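Title: Prediction job returns without error message
Component: structure pipeline
Severity: low
Priority: P3
Assignee: unassigned

Description:
Job completed but the reporter wants confirmation the result is attached to the right record. Sequence as submitted:
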Amino acid sequence: MLKTATSKPQNIDEYIARFAPETQAILQRVRQVVREAVPDGQEVISYQMPALKVHGIVVYFAAFKHHIGIYPPVGVQAMQELGLAPYAGEKGNLRFPFSQPIPYELIARIAQTRAQQDAANAARKRKTSRVKKPPRTTTLDSAD
């Protein structure tokens, strides 16, 4: 449950403090497992949600009235490999209802998978930025 808050959170501690104690405990545990799964990640607030960033955002997490949400979307293959179908929400986000035990180990695996995807994307970008494009040449039609 969300306590009333008038300003945007400046850090993850402020974000978590806005919730009731039982939700704070869940958010703190999610924060812990995500940080352990991605130890080189940097904590940030993005889109007013806690997030972990390495090259790009690895994972966002947020609390709602009835669930914890995990973003950004994971790919279809990862969704199947990790057994995430029961938690699938709109647009590939994941919803972990408060009415069920929160699968912290699964959240850690999601964070690890997303960190691997993030590293691969960063490596791909570095590789393409190093490939030199041939110089542009222009041809002039000669007038007879």
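Comment from assignee: result matches the submitted record. DSSP finds four helices and five strands in the chain.
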